[in-house]
Please model this.
Amino acid sequence: MGLSLDWSVFLQELPEGGVYYWEMLLSGLWWTLGVAACSWLIAMFFGSVIGTIRTTNSRALVFFGNAWVELFRNIPLLVQMFLWYFVLPEFIPPLKSWVVAADPAEAQFLSATLCLGLFTSARIAEQVRAGIQSLPRGQRYAAQAIGLNVTQMYRFVLLPMAYRIIIPPLTSETMNLIKNTSIALTIGLAELTFRTREMGEYTFRFFEAFTAATLIYIAIAMTANRVMAVIERRTAVPGFIAGGK
Amino acid sequence: MDFDTSVITGSLPYLWKGMQYTIQLTAIAALGGLFFGTLLALARLSSIKPLSMIAAGYVNLMRSIPLVLVIFWFFFLVPVILQTVMGYERPPQIGAERTAIITFIMFEAAYFCEIMRAGIQSIPRGQVHSAYALGLNYRQCMQLVVLPQAFRNMIPVLLTQTIILFQDTSLVYVISATDFVGAAAKIAQRDGRLIEMYLFVAVVYFVICFTLSLAVKQLQRRIAVIR
Model:
C-alpha cells in the first residue's frame, strides 16, 4: 500500500515558516464557522418572512414567496455562488469598484454569506410554511375570534408553535448549511476544506489532512445536533409533541 | 456593459457534451446509489448487530461531511485503492470523470439508504408476518413483498433526491471534470465572458429542475390518489 502515515505533519511549520499546519486548518475552521453563523442568521430571517407570507391570504404575497423558493431551490449552489461573486458586481458599478479595491477575502466572505444565506432561506421557508400549515385550523380561528390582527395572530399564536414543530428539520438544514460552506472554496474563500486541500498539496499528506477535516466536520455536526436538541427540550410545551416529560 | 450571446451560441456543441456527461453521471449515480442504498438499508435494518452498525456508521459518516470533501477523498483514495487491489506498480490514472462516477454512487448510496429505510419501515409489520406465514424466506419476503411496495411509496422522494443529485453533480467542477458547469466555466475563462456563461448555466438548470419538480408534484398527486 502506498500509504505510510505521519500524523506529526500537523506540528510542522509551513514553508514560509512561523505558522504550523494545525493553525492553518484552524484558520480555515474559523472562516467556515463565520460564514455558517452569518448566513444562518440571514437564512432564518428571510426563511421566516418568506415562509410566513406563503401562508397568508394574499395571492401576490404567496406568489412572491413561491417564486423566491423555486428560484433558489432550482439552481445548483455552485452556480449561485458564481453568480454572486462573478456576475452580480458587474451589474452594480459601485459594488464592482468596492470588490476591486477590497481585500479579496472580504468580497469572498460577503458573496458566500449572502449566497448561502438566501439559498438556505428558501429551504427554511419551506419548513416554516409546513410548520404553520400543520397547525390545526382552529388556532387561526381562535386568534381571530379573540380579536388579534394578522401580525398578532402570527406573532403570538401561530409562529411560536410552528417553530417548535420544525426544530428537527431546522436541525438538518443547519447541518446542511455548515456542510455547504465548503462550496465557498470555488470562489477562493480559504475555509476548512480549502485549507485541507492546500495542506495536502504542500505536504503530500492528503490522508492525514482529509482525516483531520473529516473529524472536525463530524464534531461540528454533532455539536449542532446537541445544541438543537437542547433548544428543543428547553422550548417544549407541556402536553405537546415530545414536551411535558 | 455588453451582453454577447454569440459566446453561448458558438460554444453550444461543447456545452452539450458537458451536459451529456452531467446527465450520464446523474443517471448512473442514481441507479447505482439506489441499488447500493437499498442493500445498505437492508443491512441497517438487519438483526445482525455488526452488519447494521457498519451500515449505520457508513451512512452517518457520509451524511456528516460535505460533498466537496467526499469528492476530494475519493479523488485521492480511488487510485490508491485500485493500486493496492490490482497490485499495480504506481497508482493508475483513471481520470476525474470516472472517479466522479464512483464518488457519486458511494455518496448517494447513503442518502438513498435513508429514503429506502423510511420506505421499508412504512410497510405495516403484518405484511412481513404474513409473508413469513406463507413460507417465504427472507429474500423472497423482501424481494416480492416489502421492497416493491417500499419502492413505490418512495418514488416521489427518490425522484426529488435525483433532482438534488442532478444539481449536486455540478460540484465535480472542483476536480476539473468537464460537466455542464465545468464546460461553461472553461469557455467563460477562455473568452473572458463570465456573465453570459454563468447566467446561461443558471437559466438552463432552473428550467430543467423547475420542470422536473413540477412533474414530480404531479406524479405525487396521482400516486396518492391510487393508494
